[in-house]
Amino acid sequence: MSGWITEALHGDFHTNFRVNKVLFDNQTEHQNLVIYENEIYGRVMALDGVTQITERDEFIYHEMLAHLPILAHGNVRKVLIIGGGDGGMLEEVLKHKDVDKVTMVELDRTVIELSKEHLPMICGDAFDDPRLDLVIKDGCLFMKECCEKYDLIIVDSTDPIGPGEVLFTDNFYTDCKKCLSEDGILVTQNGVPFHQATELKSTMSFFKPIFEETTCYMATIPTYVGGPMAFGWGTDKAGLKDVSVAELQVRFAASEIETDYYTPEVHRAAFALPKYVQELVD
Ligand code: SAM
Q: Based on the domain organization, do 140 and 270 belong to the same domain?
């Protein structure tokens, strides 16, 4: 591989990245894994031809999927991450000193090993944190057998193709709900609704019968082309998405976390949905 790499996730719409240097290109036990360098985006990881994460804009995705639900909840102690092999989500979650334990369930050990080697800017030392319980397993199977309760479950998955498909099913979400504490929150990577409307609509239709409050919130991440990305939100504690900016400011200051995208104001605004997205949620 040299020159350009094409991502063909969206059918008739393809994205090209120039490849300056290939760092890894091989088949793992579960998927094709490529890590390469691009002038604008830095190091980029792709699985089965789909861009997963880039050094340059990963902060937007990870900050919004980690800090937003943790600060909305206000007392998160136990977190479960499904997927997230690059370690970026883990790193953000572990920045919260009140988080006592993080269980991360990743299907593909090679993604973790290669991320540690080639993407240290994304995962830092997160995999060495004593609060981490790392499980190498299919996330769907893990949830089926899980008997623990978590304050927050983050589904940091690939798109609903290949091994990630099971993480977008009714059964999986129902098993997640069963493992949430009473006021727990489930958040999910739900694609770019302009290109992947069915994905969000389907997740929301599965969330509705199992959660009191279901919606999505949004952030624009340049790598995931086609407009803002949607993050699914499900909880039985109504009102968690409506915590005031003033209260979020207090919680954010107390966390002493520094961010490049997340602010309490952005947090509240992320729940304001454009009409075409609200219609998918309803
Ligand atoms: N930010 C990315 C995105 O939006 O596309 C997702 C990043 S992360 C690299 C996705 C991870 O999900 C991968 O490491 C992949 O191995 C993992 N994964 C896919 N299917 C899985 C499954 N069934 N159980 C657990 N992990 C899974």
A: yes
Instruction: Give the per-residue pLDDT at 11.
Output: 81
The answer on 215 and 103 residing in a single domain is yes
The CB of 140 under 6 Å from ligand 1? The reply is yes
Specify whether 126 is located in the same domain as 256. yes
Which segments in the chain show pLDDT lower than 50? none
Give the distance (Å) from ligand 1 centre to CA of residue 134.
14
In this structure, are 138 and 274 located in the same domain? yes
Tell me the pairing of strands 32-38 and 42-47: antiparallel
Is the CB of 164 inside a 6 Å radius of any atom of ligand 1? yes
Residue nearest to atom 19 of ligand 1 (CA): 164
Taking only the tens place, the pLDDT of each residue in 153-193 is: 999 999 998 999 999 999 999 999 999 999 999 999 999 99
3-state secondary structure at position 154? strand
Domain that holds residue 153: 58-281
Do 79 and 88 meet the contact criterion of CB atoms below 8 Å apart? no
Distance CA 18, CA 136 (A): 32
Which atom of ligand 1 has the smallest separation from the CA of 62? 1
158 lines ligand 1 (CB under 6 A): yes
User: DSSP class of residue 146?
Assistant: -
- Pair of tokens at residue 248: 């979020």
Find out whether 31 is annotated in a ligand binding site. yes
Cα 11 from chain centroid (whole Å)? 23
Q: From the CB of 108, is ligand 1 less than 6 Å away? A: yes
Instruction: Tell me, yes or no, whether 106 and 194 share the same domain.
Output: yes
User: What mean pLDDT value characterizes the chain?
Assistant: 96
Residue 92 marked ligand-binding: no
